[in-house]
Amino acid sequence: MTLKAAFIFLAPEVDPKKDRQTLITPQVELTAVSVGSYQEVEGVATELVNQEIEAIELCGGFGNKGTARIVDAVAGKYEVYPIICSKCEGQMRIIDFIHDEEVIRKIPKHLNLWDVKRKLPPRAHAPPIDFHTTYDEPQMPDVDDQVIDIEYPVEAYF
User: Fold this and answer.
1) Which of 5, 58, 65, 70 is nearest to 34 (CA)?
2) Quick one: pLDDT band at residue 33, thresholds 50, 70, 90?
3) Taking the domains of the chain in order of start, what are their residue ranges?
4) What is the mean pLDDT of the chain?
5) CB 20 within 8 A of CB 51
6) Please, which residues bridge with residue 21 across strands?
7) What is the mean pLDDT of residues 101-126?
8) 83 pLDDT more than 70
9) 135: exposed, middle or buried (C-beta count within 10 Å: 0-12, 13-18, 19+)?
10) CATH code for 3-110?
11) 34 class by beta-carbon count within 10 Å (0-12 exposed, 13-18 middle, 19+ buried)
């Protein structure tokens, strides 16, 4: 018995009906589908469920909003991959998704995390102030400056 799975990814200017490919191996039948928007992915996810796809993997580009829309589109038809708590290693559940951006902003504001200034990345070291390139001398070393191997004449290299 083969596992029927799908991978959905976001890409600009694509047609999900044409821009897809199925790879079939003895153990897995994997269908990769490209979509151009969150609206398209809802229809594609529902279509894949109707084709009896057992697992859907999402590209990281979907983010929280895109993932929430897909979960809503296939609600009750799939078990969402479990989220594991990093502290106790227990399984966590998604109760609901917050879609309203104003509500999303209220949470870090309430925790006094909204206005936290990020630490600036370290600066790259600039060249010394007295560093000047002169073009009076050639930048490439002269042939005479190269080490010459006494055992092999120069003609042997040509």
Assistant:
1) 58
2) very high
3) 3-110
4) 76
5) no
6) 32
7) 73
8) no
9) exposed
10) 3.40.50
11) buried
